[in-house]
Amino acid sequence: MWQWFHKLGSPKWFFGIAGRLMPWLGWSALIVLTAGVVWGLLFAPADYQQGDSYRIIFIHVPSAYLGQSLYVAMAVAGVVGLVWRMKMADTFIASATAVGAAMTFLALLTGAVWGKPTWGTWWVWDARLTSMLLLLFLYLGVMALRGAMEDPDVRARASAILVIVGVVNIPIIKYSVEWWNTLHQPATIKVTEAPSMPASMWVPLLICLLGFHLLVAWLILWRMRNDILLRERRARWVRDWVLAQ
Amino acid sequence: MRSEPRVPVRLQEQEGGWPRAAVETVRREWLIAFRNRQDLMNPLVFFVLIVSLFPLGVSPEPEFLRQAGPGIVWVAALLSILLSLNLLFRNDYADGHLEQWVLSPQPLALLALARVAAVWVTTVLPLVLLVPVLAVMLHLSPGTGLVLVLTLLVGTPVLVLVGAIGAALTVSLRGSGVLLVLIMTPFYVPVLIFGTGAVTAAVEGASITGHLALLGAMLSLAVVLAPLAIAGALRISVSNG
């Protein structure tokens, strides 16, 4: 176990293992997402209240879920980076920030598209929408801080602190905004309760959720490999690898 | 860069330990503040200017001002705090004072807390004391103005403590003013919500103790945790130089 953990600190080892994992992740993401989206959009029954417009949840829910969980994952990486000074932790933060921001933006966008026919408006200042918007701002803040810093070591530790402070604040922001105003329907799928929708709807949703996870893992590994190449560009193994391509 | 007055700094002394160091930090901050009075004025003028833009830009109707006034005052206070926080560690970083802090035997988090407390008293407290005047100009009732002052007294220390983390992170970067606003504003939302929420509750005749209690909870959390984050961020920024 610990040997595996120590290996994670080696960019070269990580680059190799990520390269071997990526085709598997990429193809399975494509297959699972295609299956989930086709099932969800074409074969799942229409909602008795919302009709076909509810089908956007097959994109909306996975992206909203990943937008939130990626920030927490970044905070975990931030702790790992600060405690063990692990290079890969910062590479993960660098790569996950943009993907997380994209997922959060996608959730907001699909939410607006769904809100127009359902609520009759593109945007309401509702608690869940607002906290997602603030989450997007948190991602953009991390990106802005990273962009302003040149020294890689300082950048790594500074963004780790910012992400950790952010993750302490996320529950506070979430609950304060919820107190402030809520209109959004409660979460569709909870781990602790039976889903409030029939199996013909939540099974494709779960498949989409899995597909999004695979897609995001693939994207992040791809970005991490690029980041490693950029950071280690003076290393011998990078030169050998580039020449071999 | 403002001229730094020659103030005796005795942080390295072992006698007296950390309480002495904290007191000296506060004393130094106040001396610097009162010898650069213009720097004390700027956030205040900015605060009043922002507030006066709303009657000009939106509507001077007393009805509108009564409704929007508390929010306007809170947003203006938030912005002027962010503006003045940009300078919080700037001169100390430039003249090497921060390095002495990091090297000093006293806990850095404690020095940071003393520093933030001193800054709150010198730059934010005058702003809060100005609010009754603005409340009259915004046609708020005396009771509403009082509640507004009360929420600002509890809420603004949180803003300064949390904002200081961002100020410590960005102190070594050139032209970081916008960056600080960008990074820190999302963290200010809960304080803003409960601060203005208390005033709205007071206007509607409801109890404000719940809102104040939540603001107080945020304050206690920030007093305990923010100095640690400020200290960590300062160590990083100093190692950057």
UniProtKB/TrEMBL annotation, chain A:
Listed GO MF terms: heme binding; heme transmembrane transporter activity
GO biological process, one term: cytochrome complex assembly
Protein purpose: Required for the export of heme to the periplasm for the biogenesis of c-type cytochromes.
Protein name per its UniProtKB record: Heme exporter protein C
One CC-aspect GO term: plasma membrane
Membrane topology classification: Multi-pass membrane protein
InterPro entries xrefs: Cyt_c_assembly (IPR002541), Cyt_c_biogenesis_CcmC (IPR003557), Cyt_c_biogenesis_CcsA/CcmC (IPR045062)
Entry superkingdom: Bacteria
Residue span(s) of domain Cytochrome c assembly protein: 27-184
Gene from which the chain derives: ccmC
Family recorded in the similarity comment: Belongs to the CcmC/CycZ/HelC family.
UniProt key word Calcium: no
NCBIfam families membership: ccmC
Keyword terms of this UniProt record: Cell inner membrane, Cell membrane, Cytochrome c-type biogenesis, Membrane, Transmembrane, Transmembrane helix, Transport
Compartments in which it is found: Cell inner membrane; Membrane
Membrane among keywords: yes
Residue ranges of the TM segments: 21-44, 64-84, 91-115, 127-146, 158-177, 201-221
